[in-house]
Design goal:
The structure is a single chain. This protein is an alpha/beta fold. It is built from 13 helices and 15 strands. The strands form 2 sheets. Strands 6-5-4-3-2-1-7-8-9 form a 9-stranded mixed β-sheet. The chain has a 6-stranded antiparallel β-sheet with strand order 10-11-13-14-15-12, with helices on both faces. The structure holds iron/sulfur cluster (2 copies). One iron/sulfur cluster binds next to loops.
Length: about 425
């Protein structure tokens, strides 16, 4: 049986493994559009729902919705803005958190016996010390304070984070405030986009188009975060408290472009911050098994969920050049394959993966003349993966901002780690 036939057989007989289980979901409620999904949530193991309400919502509808969830056996928490708490006077057994913005609001909320908890939102370097101290002064026995995120928190510098650390006795290294939400739950925004957490805005899919089960099952980000002990990078991975803390995933992603990177604003790992790499990556030779002139892809610009963007500038010694100095169309297939390989080697640092291109499908070439010195932009998407097999799509553009691709296609690859290589 040929390799393409083996691949087809293997994919038919072995559907992708089910790993899409999650116990906590956070949902932004604007519009209450996701009500039809309850059955599906329970099917994938969800036990707890945290509903994020906002000022555009009618509190009675929110409460009604939350009660329905609870009656269906889901633990339910409501997270509401601090200034709306009077509208939720009667949460009837629901756990009620308030999202607090200022020191005064925290003080006031701490004395409010109706509350189960407060979610603190970092409002900026000047306010944060007082803000955290206000929460610490809170004497209410039942009060649970948890730290939320905001753009200000995610973009906070090392200096600002150190101030939070100094002010916060409960958690000496409050990098992600020991927040494990990207690891333990996921966040559904009002428009249906699914993210690892509220601040880590890597789209894993949209619930208006795809079921949550399918989104989680096919998401590399979801799967890598579930296996965070093997996947997150140093210095977090070598840290003594790794596992209780994984850094703020939102900040790591937004600061470096790499969702597996260590948190670059952690005082604890300060001396090793130069080891944290950021995209774009311009030294492909350090990642890829190919060597020039065969190595054609020059830069890895972005990595998202099952997706990457690279570029390639055509060199004078490119082995695919024809006599008229234009690129032979077979080069596009190699460029697509190298881009997919770049994504893999970036996600698996230190592991040199050896692969073999098994089949090219739906290849289209617009027959444009690409010459020495031209730069091409490549978008690659992994559409299927079940080791050692994978399928990826690629599109190659002259101008990635607009315009049609000059070539595109689908590649089936068989990939072995060095140890497994036959
Ligand atoms: S890990 Fe996510 S939820 Fe937690 S603080 Fe960071 S961005 Fe916010
Ligand atoms: S090095 Fe990473 S795991 Fe350790 S405290 Fe800092 S952010 Fe948390």
């Amino acid at each position: 049986m040929s390799l393409p036939e083996q691949l087809q057989k293997s994919m038919t007989e072995n559907p992708a493994p089910v790993h899409a289980e999650i116990s906590v979901l956070e949902i932004e409620l604007s519009g209450l559009t996701m009500s039809a999904k309850q059955e599906e949530w329970q099917k994938i193991g969800v036990q707890k729902i945290i509903l994020h309400a906002d000022k555009t919502l009618d509190s009675q509808r929110v409460l009604e919705y939350a009660r329905t969830l609870r009656q269906n056996g889901l633990q339910t928490e409501l997270l509401i803005p601090a200034d709306l708490r009077n509208e939720y006077d009667d949460p009837t057994g629901l756990r009620l958190f308030c999202r607090a913005g200022t020191d005064a609001e925290v003080e006031e909320l701490c004395n409010d016996s109706k509350l189960c908890g407060i979610e603190l939102i970092y409002t900026g370097a000047d306010a944060v010390s007082d803000f955290v101290k206000a929460a610490q002064r809170c004497k209410a026995a039942s009060l649970e304070v948890r730290f939320g995120c905001s753009d200000a928190f995610i973009n906070a510098s090392l200096e600002e984070i150190r101030k939070i650390a100094d002010a916060n006795e409960r958690s000496p290294y409050p990098v992600g405030m020991n927040c494990m939400r990207a690891i333990n739950s996921c966040f559904i925004a009002a428009d249906g986009e699914v993210y690892p957490c509220q601040g880590c805005r890597i789209s894993m899919g949209n619930m208006k188009e795809t079921s949550l089960h399918e989104i989680l099952q096919n998401s590399t980000v979801f799967s890598f975060y579930r296996n965070f002990r093997e996947q997150l990078k140093k210095p977090c991975r070598d840290c003594a408290i790794f596992g209780q803390c994984v850094g703020c995933r939102g900040r790591a992603y937004h600061a470096t472009g790499d969702f597996l990177a260590a948190d670059p604003a952690c005082p604890r790992s300060e001396k090793e911050h130069d080891k944290i790499l950021s995209l774009p990556i311009r030294d492909p030779a350090n990642y890829m098994p190919h060597k020039p002139p065969m190595l054609m892809v020059s830069t890895l610009h972005t990595v998202a969920d099952n997706l990457c963007e690279t570029d390639c500038t055509v060199a004078e010694d490119n082995p695919f050049l024809r006599e008229d100095s234009t690129l032979h169309p077979s080069a596009f297939i190699e460029i697509g394959a190298q881009s997919l390989a770049f994504l893999d080697t970036f996600l698996h640092p230190g592991k040199h993966l050896n692969g073999m291109l098994v089949e090219v499908m739906r290849f289209e070439n617009k027959k444009e003349k690409i010459k020495v010195g031209d730069t091409l932009f490549i978008i690659c998407r992994k559409s299927y993966e079940m080791p050692p097999w994978s399928i990826g799509e690629f599109e190659i553009f002259r101008d990635h901002a607009n315009g049609k691709p000059v070539a595109k296609g689908e590649l089936k690859v068989c990939q072995f780690s060095a140890a497994e290589k036959p």
